[in-house]
Write a structure and sequence with these properties.
The chain is an alpha+beta fold and 212 residues long. The protein has helices spanning 10-16, 23-43, 69-76, 87-121, 142-153, 195-205; strands at residues 46-51, 64-68, 82-84, 123-128, 135-140, 162-164, 168-170, 172-181, 184-194. The protein is elongated and about 75 Å long. The chain starts with 9 loop residues before the first helix and ends in a 7-residue tail after the last helix.
Length: 212
C-alpha cells in the first residue's frame, strides 16, 4: 500500500489494528511489504552512462556520469542521449574521443592560420557618406566589415564574431576584434574615410582621354 510520494503505510496500518489484524496476517504481509520496498530501492539504483549529446545540467558529449536507472530508462535512453557504460562502450568511447581530439586539433590549426591572415592585414578601409564634422549618415556595421574582410581574404567571416569597441558613426579609426573561437582571435584597425576620397581617387586613377 503506497501513499504520499510512494511511502509504504502497510506496517503502520498493521500496528494500528492489533485487534483486527492477526499475527498470522502480519507474518504474511511483512514479507510482501519488504519485497515491495526492495523493488522501489532497486528502481533508484545508480548507474553509469556515457552521454551521446550535451545534456543541460548533466554534462557534455563523451562524459561518464552517474544517474538513476529510472532517469536513464524514462528520459535519456528514449531520446538517445546516453548509453550504458559497458566494457565495449567504454572502449569505443576512448576511440571516439581520440578521433574527436584529432579533428579538434586540425580545426584549431586552421582557425589559428586564418586569424594570422586577418592580423596580417593590419587595417581595412571602408568609405562612407558623411556630413558636417565628419558625422556619418547612419553607421558602419559589422556586416560591412565582414564583407570587406571576405573580399580581401576570399573567405567568409561571420559578422557575429566581430566586436567593435564603439559605434562607428563618424570618420576615423576604430579597433575591431574577430573572435573566431574561445581562445583564437584577431585584431585589426578599421579606417572610415569619406566617400569623396574614394571618388577622387577613382578619378585620379582613370586614364586621360586622348585629345582630338
Amino acid at each position: 500500500m503506497l501513499g504520499y510520494r510512494g511511502r509504504n503505510y502497510l506496517p503502520e496500518l498493521l500496528n494500528c489494528l492489533p485487534g483486527i489484524v492477526s499475527e498470522r496476517t502480519k507474518s504474511w504481509a511483512w514479507p510482501v511489504w519488504h519485497a515491495r520496498s526492495d523493488s522501489l530501492k532497486r528502481k533508484e539504483e545508480v548507474m553509469k552512462v556515457i552521454l551521446q549529446h550535451n545534456v543541460v545540467k548533466l554534462g557534455k558529449v563523451g562524459d561518464i556520469v552517474d544517474i538513476s536507472d529510472g532517469y536513464y530508462r524514462n528520459f535519456l535512453q528514449p531520446r538517445k542521449l546516453a548509453i550504458v557504460a559497458t566494457t565495449g562502450s567504454l572502449k569505443k568511447r576512448e576511440e571516439d574521443l581520440e578521433t574527436i581530439r584529432r579533428k579538434q586539433e586540425q580545426a584549431h590549426k586552421e582557425t589559428t592560420a586564418f586569424a594570422e591572415r586577418i592580423t596580417a592585414l593590419e587595417k581595412i578601409t571602408i568609405y562612407a557618406r558623411d556630413g558636417e564634422g565628419g558625422k556619418l549618415y547612419g553607421k558602419v556595421t559589422t556586416k560591412e566589415i565582414a564583407e570587406v574582410l571576405k573580399k580581401q581574404l576570399n573567405q567568409e567571416v561571420d559578422k557575429r564574431l566581430i566586436k567593435i569597441n564603439e559605434d562607428i558613426t563618424a570618420l576615423g579609426s576604430y579597433k575591431a576584434s574577430i573572435k573566431l573561437t574561445a581562445d583564437v582571435h584577431a585584431d585589426i584597425t578599421v579606417n572610415i574615410l569619406s566617400e569623396g576620397n574614394s571618388e577622387a581617387s577613382a578619378k585620379a586613377a582613370a586614364p586621360v582621354a586622348a585629345a582630338d
